[in-house]
Amino acid sequence: MALIEMTVPPLPHYITSGFSTLPKGGHHPSRNNIQVFDLLITTYGCFYIGEEDARFEVAPGQAVILRPDRYHFATQSCAELTGTYWMHFHVGGPWSMIDNAIAPIPLEDPSPVFVEPFAAQPFTIRIPQYTPLLQPEKTYDLFEQLHQLQPRAHVSSVRFAQQQLFHELLRQLAASTDSEHPSPATACAEKAASYLRQHYREAVSAKELGDHVNFHPVYIARCMQKEYGCSPTEYQLRLRIQQAKLLLLQTDLPVAHVGEQVGFEQPAYFATCFTRIEGISPRKYRQRFS
């Protein structure tokens, strides 16, 4: 497995991200020396891309990172509609491509030496260039949170929040080199989260979720609490609020209609849930950020 090894400080820097679709017969554009790393993650469909002599077939739940100093090109067209999250980021410190079989070399001399008090000690981060995601739904959630922050990216505190989300995403990618297979509890939570994401507008009962995941609802709730810090019901509620925020900023739909579009039957309940999670009413959220 090819790894990208980065020496920090400085920490890698998030630039921008988004979501794109490629139609059947479409393909990723060819680029050369774009000067930034390009992270691509497929959520549905499949796309095919090459980097110099390497070839990547990126299926759902897989990620590839294209280097800033290489030529990238489509190796074939998409056979179906394909959705991908993408992200550009910059690495300001030294970086190199290595093989996973090579053990990390400590940057510091193991012999006793005097270290300046409070001196920054460098270390390395290793991220696979091409890998299945250990927890796809968590990664998708991070991209969605980044997207939610984009309208306010001119605010310094928001840019800082984006960097924090980006570093958590890097941590998840780095973790995929340590464990090829998620634990049963992680797999259960991921499967439940994926189903809720696909059906967030619907009233999904605990029994329906249990039947789909093929585990007892109590076990599912315990797994999701461990992996996501909330119950399945709360997770679905957060998904609805995320989508509502997008509609509030990107459309002129009345607030009540926005709630209806994301699965709330009662406008008052939508407003209550939105305010509890975001700390501001839907109407004021639109006025402040649109």
UniProtKB/TrEMBL annotation:
Give the source's domain of life in one word: Bacteria
Please name the GO terms that the record assigns under molecular function.
DNA-binding transcription factor activity; sequence-specific DNA binding
Keyword annotations from UniProtKB, A to Z: DNA-binding, Transcription, Transcription regulation
**Locate the HTH araC/xylS-type domain: which residues?**
190-288
InterPro entries cross-referenced by the UniProt entry: Homeodomain-like_sf (IPR009057), HTH-like (IPR037923), HTH_AraC (IPR018060)
Q: Which SMART domains match?
A: HTH_ARAC
Report what the protein is called.
Answer: AraC family transcriptional regulator
Annotated organism of origin: Paenibacillus ferrarius
